[in-house]
Amino acid sequence: MSDINKVVLAYSGGLDTSVILKWLQDVYQCEVVTFTADLGQGEEVEPARAKAKALGIKEIYIDDLREPFAKEFVFPMFRANTVYEGEYLLGTSIARPLIAKRLIEIANETGADTISHGATGKGNDQVRFELGAYALRPDIRVIAPWREWDLTSRQTLLAYAEQHGIPIEMKKGKASPYSMDANLLHISYEGGILEDPWAEPEEDMWRWTVSPESAPDKPTYLELTYRHGDIVAIDGVMLSPAEILSKLNQIAGANGVGRLDLVENRYVGMKSRGCYETPGGTVMLKAHRAMESITLDREVAHLKDELMPRYASLIYNGYWWSPERKMLQHMIDASQVNVNGQVRVKLYKGNVTIAGRASESDSLFDASIATFEEDQGAYNQKDAEGFIKLNALRMRIAAKKQG
């Protein structure tokens, strides 16, 4: 194992990655560089610096990636109306390619030949991190301790930390029984009672959203301005992508919007039950479809809907950096040139309702044709007869044969 020179570790400062840091030093006898990402998880990331220094780390990277995360990953994904298995808005999945990208950039900057992560051998994240890393640097080496060591439980990790003098901050009060992952798009919960798919989540589990029953009795209205398929303003106030997502999280969460309880199919083959809070993303999905409804050609919109499940699977399974995902993204982005205008949404007790949509320059909705009133000759209803007969021709032929 002495041929490993330097490792860049995706480091949160928590129990798992603190043990991994020391384990890498002891087992591989290598220099370790730590990388901690602020993706809007709502927790202080600076303490990771002190913990890394206490373990003798000289090269420490702590990066605020909230804006690139929202602009370069979340927003492009929502242009495709991306949903995995009909419900999941891919909050964890979409963060992994950015972490992989930064791991490789730091490896290149520091001369490291290896990266390491704390993902387990049962989950999707190991695939996402490593596929991304290999796509960006084919010769990179990867150390995944959970696939190598015999530290298989929290108790064995705590014992290792105590034995090696690793400082572990024990939070006061009741510890959460759930495995959680958070970023600017969502927060996820797994483990504990959620391992029983029949068990209802406890109300005090949720962090970002009030229960729909406890949400305000008065609805909240928002006007979202779109430019090329992206929200650029809320109620007329121009904001950055990260600011938009953060504000939507706050407002939608206060109205009970964005909870999801899901049993999903992991890429590694097993079914997994998880719960998610994605308040801002839930609003974004609904509003974007409303904006497209008046600005996209019918066949373009339908083609996007046909391709979306494949695009969603590529992201879920870790293929963000693949040539096929990039190809699809070019097509999706091209479709968004005229997705411009305003959408008014109504948030009320867990629901997102479209209250209006408008586009001065790019709307394909023609009231003079769609009207149920006198259309002044804009549409000749007699044309429908031939249209129907031509489309019925094959069925009429088949019916005669059968009759």
Description:
This protein has 403 residues and is α/β, with parallel strands linked by helices. It has three domains: 132 residues, HUPs (Rossmann fold, 3-Layer(aba) Sandwich), CATH 3.40.50; 139 residues, Argininosuccinate synthetase, chain A, domain 2; 28 residues, no CATH class. The protein contains twelve helices and 14 strands. It has a five-stranded parallel beta sheet with strand order 3-2-1-4-5, with helices on both faces. A five-stranded antiparallel beta sheet has the order 10-9-8-13-14, with helices on one face. A four-stranded antiparallel beta sheet has the order 6-7-12-11, with no helix packed on it. Helix 2 links the parallel strand 2 and strand 3. The longest helix is centred in the C-terminal third of the chain and has 20 residues.
Distance between the termini: 77 Å
Side by side, the strands of the main sheet go 3-2-1-4-5
- Number of helical segments? 12
Q: Any idea of the CATH topology of the largest domain?
A: Argininosuccinate synthetase, chain A, domain 2
| Count of extended strands | 14
Instruction: Tell me the fraction of residues in β-strands, as a range.
Output: 15-25%
Mind telling me which CATH architecture of the largest domain this is? Alpha-Beta Complex
Briefly, what is this?
This protein is of the alpha/beta class. It is 40% helix and 19% strand. It has a 5-stranded parallel beta sheet with strand order 3-2-1-4-5, with helices on both faces.
